[in-house]
Amino acid sequence: MVSMMFTGPLVTAATMVAVLILHILTLPANAQCPCEGALPALQSLYNATDGPHWINPWQNMFSGASVCSLSGINCSSNGNIWIDLPLRHLVGTIPDDFAVRYPRVAMFAVSLNNLRGTLPRSFALFGEHIGVFDVSNNAQLGGTLPTEFSNWTMMNTFWVQNCSIKGTLPSAYASWGSNLRSFYFYSNDISGTIPPEYSAWSSTSEFSGSDNLINGTIPRALISAWKDTMYDFSLSRNGLLTGDLFGSDGNGFCEWIRIYNFIASDNMFSGSIPSCLSNWGTTIEQLSVSNNLLAGTLPSSLQSWTVVRNIEFGTNFFEGTLPAVYSLMKKMKIFNAKNNKLTGTLPPQYGQWSSLLRFYVDGNQLSGTLPDEYYGWGSSVFDIRISQNNLSGTLPASWGVFTNVERLSLSFNQLTGTLPSSYSAMTSLVVLSLDLNQLQGPLPASWQSLTALQAVGLQYNYNLQGPIPPSWSSMRRLLVMAVCNTSICGNASMFFLVGAFGFTCPQPSALANPDLDTAALQQYILASERYSSFPCISTPAPASPTPLPSLQPARNNETTAVLPYTALAQSSATAAVWSVVRPVP
């Protein structure tokens, strides 16, 4: 994915504690602070995490400071404290003696700092007092999840994402029971299986464990336990999760009445998409099951998903056609069905997706033409990938309304006709890949307005012909001008960057492939054969492009028609501002 799916917490720890405080009698402003006993523990934390260099450090810590006056510390009338210190530049380890000195901690939130070491087992002393625990986004914080934390029987929010925690998920945490609402452990090195005992968490609404090493299957007991509460569920990029994801009856997932975010991509799940998932209609906003072993057809019943924004079916084994009734998903922003075995035509009804951002159906067996109706995507769409299909017909002139499109990939098809002059309005275009089609005619001079272009692929369109328009010299960001195996002619020196190292003949898939990162693409281009010009009276350029992805070193004994591998060429290429891969907004 490109993965574009949201898997993080919906609210901050500060918001969570605000909710908890509504149910707890807090200290009146004019009362004596009942939490002064916490001062030794807070002094220990301050010393262990380089307190004097915090952002907004505590003052007078060792000369009469009051706990109730410390920023990020809240005190209740029963003596419990809430510690809320995100983004304060805490550097060091969490002291083992903290809970020994003061165990009455209702919230411990120290996310987005530079903590290292391990989670102190002594924190088990927080016991029934603690309800919110957030040490997320401390990249060097490691070790394992202490089993001893199982006595946190009032735990509501447990966030340890984006750390370096290893080991397994303790089954003993099942003791947290119906109090637990949110459990985030994504982006760690946690292995093993998901404990079926977690079915005791009957009120859990957020469970996110993406980017770990979890294996096995999703326990059906959990699926059943969370049917009335779960709305954010993510287990993507574990790789070793297996089994029939939904089963013939949905495996209980069809009974989830609140689910809005379901992410299970980049695993080894099998099975198909059951029609009963239509039950998610009024709640589901994001579904990603890309990069699995799923098969079958895409159910038309999913038309009931009236609020869905992102759907990712990519890189599976789906067959059949693209359901035209998906056009009823009026809020669609991301649609990804690439790298499957889909047939049929592109539904023109999808032009009704007026808020679409990304459309990926490359790597299928689609036929027919490019629908004119897609002009309805207008200025919202910025990434269109329809390459590697069996499409025919012409490039729709109506698509010139895509004024914010940054990537347009239509290579490896059977498209005919000329290059529309109306595409001159695509002034945000960065990568244009039209290789391996049957396009013809001259290059439009009006495309001089495409000054954001960094890569143009026109190779293997044998009937594209004529000189490169002089007006194209305005494309000062252009790094790749691939016109091999065409009848296009011109001199590389007319371009600012291309002139530094010449025309190249990259394998067409280099531009069609979004997974080739910026650095690899730059090195690949620099290592390719480079030509200073293509004479207008010559035959087309060599028939064999440079292999991909292996990088061949540049030759030193090249002819005068081939530019040498110079420092200027490398610095010019490196200076180019590549935007081939853009994060999801």
From TrEMBL:
The keyword Signal applies. Gene3D superfamilies: Ribonuclease Inhibitor. Keywords: Signal. It is found in: Membrane. GO terms for cellular component: membrane. It is a single-pass membrane protein. It comes from the Eukaryota. Residues 1-31 form the signal peptide. Its main location: membrane. This is GP46-like surface antigen, putative. It comes from Bodo saltans (Flagellated protozoan).
